[in-house]
Task: inverse folding
């Protein structure tokens, strides 16, 4: 699962906007850091085509045991108030990663209040009833925190830190406090709203990829909340009040919407004991999600051309796919690897080696609701998208009509397995992966099952899936061109 996704990072008053391609959100797979969604209990040997080993979940004391890969076993449980807890004991360094996943993102917003989920993420770094503004950061910095940050996506909001192992109780105390006792006043709200507005200006002026990303989703989605950017629209932010933020907090920041993932040099029983101590008294609210429209099926191509501060043309093409937990997800992981993972991938040979593009990538925006499979190319100077797009279309037609060879399929699967294991090399990489699958894909056992399913993908599945989804009538195309070359004829699109 490569989530995905345009994620907006913020810590204190610092914000970075990135098109996030990989398990994160993010865009599943991508030429530079392809991400594959994987699942617990990954087999040591590749599966036979079409044969998927079962993921076996055992029970031990208070925990479900989910084997991941090698020595890694996830221990999962749920408190009485609905808070989910996942612990993986890994003493490779005397530290731990602590990720708090909240089941709320921009898909939980409504027209007129876009950007509220991300704005509220900023407010979570303000004061609580027990700690004045600034104390949260100061206490953690004194404790030696690394990677203290947060991000908001379409489907969730995540707060994360890495700390020396002796500070487990400290972070549980602080995180449970701001989940339940945050103070949102008019002054802090206005300050953070200005910070977010500056993020918007920064993206518009300095991030061509961010503008292309936003336009892609605005064009591909008409009815669904994925239409609007995670950061929201300026006019909506200007109309919001501190009371809107307080209402949002009361509705969505509840323990039954939280998943806490702890990975590192910890003892699972101690983690559970502390979780009960600090989170156990918080009350579940079982608040419903906002009802939103189902996206209208796309029956014709949609195209946009953007005039941007860039030196070369950029091409993004996207096709609608299913949610991240569907049976086609492993097939799209393999397709991504075949198309753009590595020097020998099909699009790299067709576009980069032939001097048409400087770089090319692809991958799934794997989302809770139906997502997108995207292909992105930065053209060489002097080359035009009218040359690159037919080549990409030709490669998709090859996937539809010609079986992938055994050697190419094996190469793709080996690359996906490598990237999966690579993510397990850090505590943070593990915590992100486990939390993402638990909150978005229906359970972290999907992490394992998916990896096994990828190894069982067949050439016939690739052909069938390509024919079903890569239809010319269903493509959304966004082109970025340097300002000086755009044709201004009636504001026409491509």
Result:
């Amino acid at each position: 699962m490569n989530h995905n996704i345009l994620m907006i990072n913020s810590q204190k008053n610092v914000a970075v906007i990135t098109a996030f391609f990989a398990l994160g959100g993010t865009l599943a797979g991508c030429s530079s850091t392809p991400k594959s969604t994987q699942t617990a209990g990954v087999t040591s040997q590749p599966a036979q085509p079409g044969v998927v080993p079962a993921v076996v979940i055992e029970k031990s004391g208070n925990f479900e045991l989910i084997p991941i890969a090698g020595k890694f076993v996830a221990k999962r449980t749920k408190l009485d108030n609905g808070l989910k807890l996942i612990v993986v004991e890994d003493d490779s360094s005397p530290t731990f990663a602590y990720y708090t996943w909240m089941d709320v993102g921009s898909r939980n917003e409504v027209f007129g209040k876009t950007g509220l989920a991300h704005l509220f993420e900023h407010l979570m770094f303000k004061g609580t009833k027990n700690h004045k503004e600034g104390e949260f950061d100061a206490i953690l910095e004194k404790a030696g925190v690394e990677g203290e940050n947060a991000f908001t996506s379409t489907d969730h909001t995540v707060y994360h830190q890495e700390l020396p192992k002796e500070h487990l109780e400290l972070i549980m105390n602080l995180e449970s406090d701001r989940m339940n006792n945050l103070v949102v006043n008019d002054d802090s709200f206005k300050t953070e709203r200005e910070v977010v507005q500056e993020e918007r200006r920064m993206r518009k002026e300095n991030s061509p990829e961010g503008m292309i990303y936003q336009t892609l989703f605005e064009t591909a989605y008409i009815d669904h909340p994925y239409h609007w950017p995670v950061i929201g629209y300026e006019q909506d932010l200007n109309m919001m009040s501190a009371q809107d933020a307080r209402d949002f907090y009361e509705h969505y920041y509840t323990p039954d919407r939280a998943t806490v993932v702890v990975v590192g040099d910890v003892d699972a029983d101690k983690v559970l004991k502390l979780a009960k101590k600090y989170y156990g008294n918080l009350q579940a609210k079982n608040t419903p999600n906002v009802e939103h429209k189902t996206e209208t099926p796309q029956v014709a191509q949609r195209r946009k051309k953007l005039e941007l501060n860039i030196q070369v043309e950029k091409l993004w093409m996207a096709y609608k796919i299913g949610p991240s937990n569907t049976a086609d997800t492993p097939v799209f992981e393999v397709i991504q690897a075949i198309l753009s993972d590595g020097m020998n991938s099909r699009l790299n040979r067709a576009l980069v080696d032939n001097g048409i593009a400087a770089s090319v990538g692809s991958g799934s925006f794997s989302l809770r609701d139906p997502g997108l499979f995207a292909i992105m190319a930065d053209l060489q100077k002097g080359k035009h998208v009218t040359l690159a797009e037919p080549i990409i279309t030709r490669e998709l037609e090859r996937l539809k009509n010609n079986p992938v060879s055994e050697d190419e399929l094996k190469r793709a699967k080996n690359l996906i397995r490598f990237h999966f294991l690579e993510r397990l090399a850090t505590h943070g990489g593990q915590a992100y992966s486990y939390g993402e699958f638990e909150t978005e894909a229906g359970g972290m056992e999907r992490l394992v099952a998916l990896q096994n399913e990828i190894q069982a993908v067949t050439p016939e599945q690739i052909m069938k899936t390509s024919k079903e989804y890569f239809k010319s009538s269903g493509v959304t195309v966004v082109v970025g061109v340097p300002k000086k070359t755009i044709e201004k004829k009636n504001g026409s699109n491509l």
The first strand starts at residue 5 and ends at 11. Residues 1-40, 43-47 have pLDDT under 50 and may be disordered. The two ends are 31 Å apart (CA to CA).
